[in-house]
Amino acid sequence: MSHDHSSLFPEVMPAAPEKATLEGKNKFFGQWFFLGGETVLFASLFGTYLALKNSTAGGPSTDELFGLGLVFLMTMLLLTSSLTSVYAMYHMRNNDFKKMYLWLGITGLLGIGFLACEIYEFAHYITEYGFSFRSSAFGSAFYALVGFHGGHVLFGICWLTTLLIRNAKRGLNLYNAPKFNTFSLFWHFIDVVWVFIFTVVYLMGKVG
Amino acid sequence: MSIAATGKRSFGSFLWDYLTTVDHKKIAHLYLAGGGFFFILGGLEALVIRIQLIRPENDFISAGFYNEMITMHGTTMIFLAGMPILIGLMNAAMPLQIGARDVAFPFLNALSFWLFLFGGLLLNLSFLFGGAPDAGWTSYASLAMQSPGHGVDFYILGLQIAGAGTLMGGINFIATIVTMRAPGMTYMRMPLFTWATFITSVLILFAFPPLTINLFLLMFDRMFETAFFNVALGGNTIIYQHLFWIFGHPEVYILILPLFGLFSDIFSTFSRKRLFGYTAMVFATMLIAFLGFMVWAHHMFTVGLGPVANSIFAVGTMAIAVPTGIKIFNWLLTMWGGQVTVNSAMLWALGFIPSFTIGGMTGVMLGSNVADYQYHDTYFVVAHFHYVIVGGTIFGIFAGLHYWWPKMFGRILHEGMGKFSFWVFFAGFHLTFFIQHFLGLMGMPRRYWVFLHDQGLELGNLISTIGAFLMGIASIVFIYNIVYSAIKGEKAEADPWDGRTLEWSISSPPPYYNFEQLPLVRGLDPLWIEKMEGDGKIPPGEPLDDVHMPNGSFIPFLMGLGFFIAGFGFIYQVDHSLWYLALYGGLAFSIGCMVVRSLQDDFGYYIPKEELKKALEGEAK
Amino acid sequence: MKGWMGKLRTLVLLGSLAFILSGCGRDNLTALVPKGYGADVSMQLIILTTVVMTFVFLVVMVIYVIVLMRYRKKKGDPVINPEQVEGNKTLEAVWTIIPIILVVIMAVPTVFATFHLADDSDSEDHINIDVTGNQYWWHYDYRNEEIATSQDLYIPVNTKVYVHLITNDVLHSFWVPSLSGKLDVNPENVNTMYIEAYEEGVYFGKCAELCGPSHSLMDFKVVVVSEEEYDQWVQDMQNFDTETLDLDPVAQEGRELFEEKSCVQCHATDTQNYSAGSVPIGPDLTQFADRSRLAGYLDPTKENLVKWIQDPESLKPGNLMTGAYPELSDDEADKIAEYLLQLKPSEITAESKED
Questions:
Q1: Which residues of chain B fall below pLDDT 50?
Q2: Which domain holds residue C65?
Q3: Each residue of A27-44: pLDDT tens digit?
Q4: What is the CATH number of the domain that holds B502?
Q5: Where does residue A44 rank: exposed (0-12), middle (13-18), buried (19+ CB within 10 A)?
Q6: Partners for C (CB, 8 Å, 3+ pairs)?
Q7: In chain C, how many domains are there?
Q8: Which pLDDT does position B373 carry in this prediction?
Q9: Chain B residues near residue C79 by CB distance under 8 angstroms
Q10: For this UniProt entry, what's an example GO CC term (chain C) (predicted)?
Q11: Which pLDDT does position C2 carry in this prediction?
Q12: Which of B45, B270, B332, B543 is most buried, by the most CB atoms less than 10 A from its CB?
């Protein structure tokens, strides 16, 4: 080996460490394209939900089922977590590893809070209303859409945890900076999807 | 560390090399081999279908097995033969055409291939485990939900795994083209095949997710008693049809656009002339792709969507004829005034023009929805899409194989055999499918296990079957040609066709790092420019330096294997809960592989400057 | 219309040798010889689009042939470097604009025809039949006449008949090529279309959506009769009562077996118990002996019928009758067949209309 990998660990970090290497740039673009595909994925689920939301087969309807209080709390948790991940990325660009970790940690905790609320919500529907994904076409479509989103949140939390554990002792470098950045892109995406779920499923379910 | 092939190696190390490779050129070989295997399988299924239909009320195979045959023929040819071979060609040529050393995510590239292969194997293993899927390649919800046994479950899981691989491949190619073009290779200097790869990848990215969701919904309905398509609980089977065709129509363009690009390269190379109307060609491709997303419901004219929807989709469908027409005329005008060399690759391209034009013609005719009330789900449609997919995609694949075979394998395919297989295939193809237009209008619906006596359908079906065998013979000759060329074939030089694009500027086959120095591109058809205006060599676009390369890895194979096992678990968990072991075990194994991959620091390695310098000096001699 | 047909024939004859040999296909099955309104409208568009597209094809082929003749490199030709033409704006504009015009020529009549055929505002004034698709047979419920039958659909000539389609199980598609284009038979919604036949006769109907192993055997017939015959047929059907039939002893025994062996649980044999909207589990057998085909596609002989009664699976794989009744001896099957062949409510039959 005539060449070591010192270029990944520069003395002075560049302004945008997540895009400083070709690999970083690839990850950045690749993640954006992946999220483009994810958008269509969720669009398909939204379409299915909209087509089936009134097919309750005699079971509870959206209006009877949903309470906006809990959902509002969930929205706040997830929106805030999106903001905290922005802070984390801000500190990454300032090469402040500790503060980045702090804000990423908070992001993760907020995500866990969101997930806990969602699990409570689902359990509530099942025990109180006997409303499961087998009850009606509406039930199937509701759990598919919201559950798919919840699955994404869970995946995000696991991803973040591995990242945080893995890099705890290494500090920031050009090899792992793109990884933190791709995670934060993903996390924003789930947040945006949730805004749509909040509007289309819950608000329109209550009002429309 | 170096994976350069040096001297004689044992079969074990050869195998290990391919199992762990992340080199786009070797992954291309794998895709071609895998896709070729499934092409043969799908071809045999086609012959079984045609034998069954050789005479009225034949009993060569049972009704149930016939439905398995048509389902597997369609599914195999589209997902496991057509697309993988195309992705193989993209892998082989695209990075070279833009002057890159590999794709953006070499590891992911290998993973894409293994997911495709394991998905394809899973799907086909259904034959050995109680019956293949039998609800048609579209697997419409109501019949697919009722289909007994596990056939449809194999369909769902197999396509889900293979589809995930394809999606990753698409993302990979887009990122590659966006970030890794050589110095001077602007978008509007990219060869048409690269453009087509780019646009096709975008189609894959946006078309596959609806399929993923649709398969999920069907899987949940079949395995976990959800109610998406269960009418008694308010479900709706039309949703399945919509989601399927939102995927399915762009899929047709995924199968044909890469070949539009390839034919553009071939026509231009063998006419020794620049592509006529390059800009129009690029935008026509984009327009076709865009419109391709807008017309899915023309597969559903008879569903009863109402006159408004039918009219909109009818007009939209006919509109696609405009950009496609632009392409056909631009190809003809590329040859006009050129010097047209007719060899095997060019023969397939020339055969494509009339064949595909007929496919396009009938496509527009099908777009008129009131006429389609008669065509729909008959042999007319079967004829139409075979004219497009065989006359376009398969002709293109053969053209591409003849064209790039020297670049990929360093040998030239035998011309005589190449021409022979073209003419036999061409005759067989038209014999098989032209008559089917009339069979459809004469009252023969598609997917018919038998046609009845005395309905005027005997002769047409007989002719069709004879044609199918001619295509079979031509394919066998082509396979023999491959074997022959591997043993006795003429060694290929770097630029056997007097080419125009970057892939012909490096040796055949290229070194594992492709370019010692990234090339400097001075315009469209860079190699031709250097031949006309320079010394015929592409100038370097960077100083000679150490070259960064990715490490090989066995993890992609293992991840594919994990999902394969999990697939079995999913299929059989409804029968016995022990199968959950396979399900969770397989998933855990794959996720474990993913975690291991994330936890490892894989920085790749560098090829020292000295080695590259030696290679350059060797070339100069 | 006839002129157009003639033109099409010449066109196609030129196009395909095989076509000359086999003609336009079997009469009353082929869509190429329309004998009903819907098929006629479709045919006009088929011809229009074929003519336009053939024109385009010929233009492409002329240029193609010229290119190959003039610019092909022949043996011994020296290698030349032709002029590298970038493109030609005028030419490219021409082959963008002309196709757009051609598309408009095809699109406008298509849209008109679409809305025209979809107009069902006058359905109340015509015969309305509820059609139910089943694996693998068709059931017809004549709404206003209060009669029901299966497999053979009787309609009067030269009048609109509205069919309302729905399926009991999986998707099917209702297609009588010579009379009209097809319409899918969905489980979740009723699809409506009309058929109007120009000539009396027996027309072939097909299922055009994959519905299981016997998809290709799910044939049916449309029997087009005169107005008077139709009225007569309806009356005969309404009055048919198996209780008052004059049966010979063998058939009488057959009738008892029909009830004993649980045939009657799925099959109705007369219209006396007609209830609107209900679909029997198995085909209605009221006019069984008048059927043009057995099981949709077999000659209606007694031999075939006995075989069917004993082993339907061998004739129609995947049908739902198999295993739904106790095993029958040759003798029993023979007697039931004898009985079923007595179910002849009317003189108006498919046979009388078949050429």
A1: 1-6
A2: 2-71+86-118
A3: 999 999 999 999 999 999
A4: 1.20.210.10
A5: buried
A6: B
A7: 2
A8: 96
A9: 272, 339, 498
A10: plasma membrane
A11: 45
A12: B270
